[in-house]
Amino acid sequence: MLANQWLKKHNMEQEYVGLSEMPNGVQLYKVHYDEHQFYGFKGIVSENGNDIKHSEIPKGFKVEGFLYFNINGYSTYCREYKEYWEWVSKRNPHRYNDNISHNQNYDGKNMMHCLRMLDMAIEIAEGKGVNLLRPNREWLLSVRKGMISYDEIISLIEEKNNRMNEAFTVSDLPDEVDPNMVHDIILQIRNK
Questions:
Q1: pLDDT per residue as tens digits for the range 27-42
Q2: Which residues pair with 29 in a beta bridge?
Q3: CA 31/CA 51 separation, integer angstroms
Q4: Who contacts 157 (Cβ-Cβ below 8 Å, separation ≥6)?
Q5: Which of 122, 143, 160, 188 lies at a CB distance of 3.0 to 4.6 Å from 112, suitable for a disulfide?
Q6: Distance separating alpha carbons of residues 67 and 50, to the nearest angstrom
Q7: pLDDT at 111 over 80
Q8: Which of 149, 77, 139 lies closest to 112, judged by CA?
């Protein structure tokens, strides 16, 4: 049970709680309660929000319960929560509205690029080079506009991914890039 639920069930305020560490308990605490605030318990929640408070508990003070605080899980949750709201504040509103307007519940631009890149990878593996101009441009734009169902797109992605893996398995492309060749190409580009 979550701490706030437990406190509510027992008609307790978190500000009147005192926590003390359990001997040999990792992230495990004894919960004490002082409804008259006689001992000045510090409560549970610390000011920085990512930790809990410890209180000095008089010897023999009644234990009301036990609290397990998963600091790593909580820190991860806080980081992901912060990242999500940063993303919301920085997201491209036009792109977000595009995704909402087509009612397909997927990011049309990402799906379009995923399909395009799979096609290009297949062509590269088959020795057809890097073709930036796509012969299926209009169809790819229809994916971006949400005119193709999500299930159909996922099915195509799985099919193209399998085809790409098979093509690279039989491809005569080298497994690694020749660093000398890359160096020579970069020099040629800089010289031009």
A1: 888 999 998 888 888 8
A2: 21, 67
A3: 15
A4: 111, 114, 115, 118
A5: 143
A6: 15
A7: yes
A8: 139
Alpha carbons 69 and 5: distance in angstroms, whole number: 15
Which residue from 38, 18, 14 is spatially nearest to 30, judged by alpha carbons? Answer: 18
Spell out the long-range contacts of 119-123 with Cβ–Cβ below 8 A and sequence spacing 24 or more.
Answer: 119/160, 121/164, 121/167, 121/168, 122/160, 122/163, 122/164, 122/167
DSSP code per residue over 20-72: EEPTT-TTEEEEEE-TT-SS----SB-TTSSSB------TTPPP-EEEE--HH
Phi, psi of 170 (to 5 degrees): -100, 0
pTM for the whole thing? Answer: 0.49
- pLDDT recorded at residue 95: 65
Query: 21 CB contacts (<8 Å, ≥6 apart)?
Result: 28, 29, 30, 54
Q: How many CB atoms lie within 10 A of CB 159?
A: 11
Whether 94 contacts 88, CB under 8 Å = no
